[in-house]
Specification:
The protein has 570 residues and is α/β, with parallel strands linked by helices. The chain is built from 21 helices and 13 strands. The strands form four sheets. A five-stranded parallel sheet has the order 6-5-4-10-11. Strands 1-3-2 form a three-stranded antiparallel sheet, covered by helices on one side. A three-stranded antiparallel sheet has the order 7-8-9.
Length: 570
């Protein structure tokens, strides 16, 4: 009997007593914090409100009434402890079932079909054209890519969209700056940085000369009206930018299905504005066109400025409606920082007022800031921290650590880059997304701390062990009944992986999955310190190597979901 079957059976027995569905109860189980407390823990805090009793009392009553001294198949012991009901499983069958599930599934372990027939759109990264990839775009890129991979593993058709910031008055400023000073820049070696310097220079000059603000607006208005020269310049800016962005995405293991910027929707906005007019949602305020949201506790949503230029809300509203019609999605995620919370509340509400009840499935996946030290980031003032500078620093530090740990590693530069990227990714995905991330490179790059490189190092050690064993794995004739309590403390983590994937999809939160990988690696490394895996006992060695192989499967699987390269050597 599998552990899942045991959970379902326990849930069926408990459900009538607590008034919660068996399906919901089956998803509540946790691993006890202490191994001696068993293999599964059912938290009774969730039943306290409807039962109006303290969790410890509930745990004792469930023990007495739902089980009455008898044990479900596959369970050897049940014990109420505080607000939990702890279950110890029969060691032999439980270990073999858990281990076989991983070995049979291989790289597909954790995959489910629960999302079959459903489509999820994930908008993330959404970089700005004509500006270098800054660290401000790192977290959306890393988190969005991870969530897309998680949904794909759960069987959803996943569409990854990069909503490029390729439209707006800033392009009028850039065009004006290019006409004024473009001849002073080469645009050959690093065109994206030259464009950025132009942008910063123009912004600084506009503080001294207010006429430049009007000049930028005029150039953008000409661009909106189809001026050929401005349009050609704008396309050149996009071309320069995409070359730079593609390099960064390749380094971060990130892919997109569509690059559709704000400009893609510019010929579709009039129809949306007409719908707003027809539904009598528009009104004038100080020359601007707005949707009044005061009754919902929100500021007005600006649809058009007084000069008739469109705004972000108009373009995002148009994009949302287009995507629903074109992709027919079941859910759409916007992986965008918390600073944009009001913006999403506003245009989601406008879409709802237009009669679209499906907007409840449009989710703003918000997150906190990323800091490298205490330097604040500002594009206009020129203090943007470039990804290129960050990864260069990280690679240099990573190379130093690798040289100290293993000076003979092959392709040290490539390995240093993969380790640096792992540090970047894992540090951001392990922190709960509503919290800020503050990088301390010495901590993030450690092979011994709770880091991405530590997980890569564990994977590399496992690969070395398997190579030393020298036999093709898995081996069907291994006697898994030889595995006991020591192995149980490692193998019990396997079944948690699919649950962590589901929880990540439900909460749009990767920290639980990251913590799971640390727990799995920690459990195996602790086991490895105490127990010789390759011994003189051939049968026992074979059984233990199946476990080691399964650990590597799950670890590699989880790392790839997060976007981290599992390394064979380091």
């Amino acid at each position: 009997m599998s552990t899942l079957d045991i959970k379902n059976r326990i849930a069926e027995l408990v459900s009538p007593q607590v008034g919660v569905s068996a399906e919901e109860i089956a998803g509540m189980f946790e691993l006890p914090k202490q191994p001696e407390h068993g293999d599964l823990a059912l938290p009774c805090f969730r039943f306290a409100k409807q039962m109006r009793k303290a969790p410890p009392v509930i745990a004792k009553e469930i023990f007495d009434q739902s089980f009455g001294g008898s044990l479900p198949n596959g369970v050897s012991r049940i014990e109420p402890m505080g607000g939990y009901l702890n279950f110890t499983l029969d060691t032999g069958s439980a270990l073999a079932d858990r281990l076989k599930a991983v070995l049979l599934a291989g790289n597909n372990f954790g995959n489910t079909s629960e999302g079959n027939g459903k489509k999820v759109l994930v908008e993330f990264s959404s970089v700005n054209i004509a500006k270098p990839f800054g660290v401000g775009h790192l977290r959306t890129t890393i988190l969005g890519a991870a969530l897309a991979r998680i949904y794909a593993k759960l069987g959803y058709e996943t569409v990854r969209i990069n909503h490029l910031g390729d439209w707006g008055t800033q392009f009028g400023n850039l065009i004006a700056a290019y006409r004024m000073w473009g001849s002073e820049y080469k645009f050959a070696e690093n065109p994206i940085k030259d464009l950025y310097q132009l942008y910063v220079r123009y912004h600084a000059a506009a503080k001294e000369d207010a006429s430049l603000v009007d000049k930028g607006r005029d150039e953008f208005r000409k661009l909106e009206q189809g001026d050929k020269e401005n349009h050609d310049l704008w396309e050149r800016f996009i071309e320069y930018s995409m070359i730079d962005f593609s390099r960064v995405y390749h380094m971060l293991n990130v892919e997109f299905d569509y690059y559709t910027g704000e400009s893609f929707y510019r010929d579709k906005m009039d129809a949306v504005i007409k719908q707003l007019e027809d539904k009598k949602l528009l009104m004038q305020s100080d020359g601007a066109t707005i949707v009044d949201l005061e009754e919902f506790g929100l500021p007005p949503c600006l649809i058009k400025k007084s000069d008739e230029s469109t705004l972000y809300a108009t373009r995002d509203l148009t994009a949302l409606l287009y995507r629903k019609e074109h992709f027919k999605f079941d859910k759409i995620l916007y992986v965008v920082g918390s600073s944009q919370k009001l913006h999403f509340q506003q245009f989601f509400k406008v879409a709802e007022l237009m009669g679209n009840d499906w907007v409840k499935n449009a989710i703003h996946v918000e997150f906190g800031w990323v800091k490298f030290g205490e330097q604040a980031m500002s594009t206009r003032s020129g203090t943007l921290i470039f990804f290129e500078d960050v990864i260069t620093q990280a690679k240099a530090l990573s190379r130093e650590i690798i040289n100290a740990e293993n000076p003979d590693v092959a392709d040290a530069d490539w390995t240093a880059e993969r380790v640096a990227v792992a540090a970047l990714i894992f540090t951001q995905l392990r922190v709960r997304r509503n919290k800020d991330v503050n990088f301390v490179w010495e901590e993030a790059l450690s092979f011994k701390g709770e880091t991405g490189p530590y997980l890569q190092y564990t994977h590399a050690r496992l690969s070395s062990l398997i190579q030393k064993y020298g036999k093709t794995l898995p081996e069907a004739d291994a006697d898994l009944s030889l595995l006991g309590e020591e192995e149980k403390n490692v193998i019990k983590w396997f079944e948690i992986y699919p649950e962590r994937l589901r929880q990540a999809a439900e909460s749009y939160e990767t920290s639980g999955l990251a913590d799971f990988l640390l727990n799995l690696a920690g459990a195996f490394n602790s086991y490895w310190q105490r127990i010789r895996i390759i011994t003189d006992d051939a049968a026992l060695t074979k059984a233990r190597m199946q476990m080691a192989y399964a650990v590597r499967i799950v670890l590699a699987n989880g790392l790839r979901v997060l976007g981290i390269e599992p390394l064979e050597k380091m």
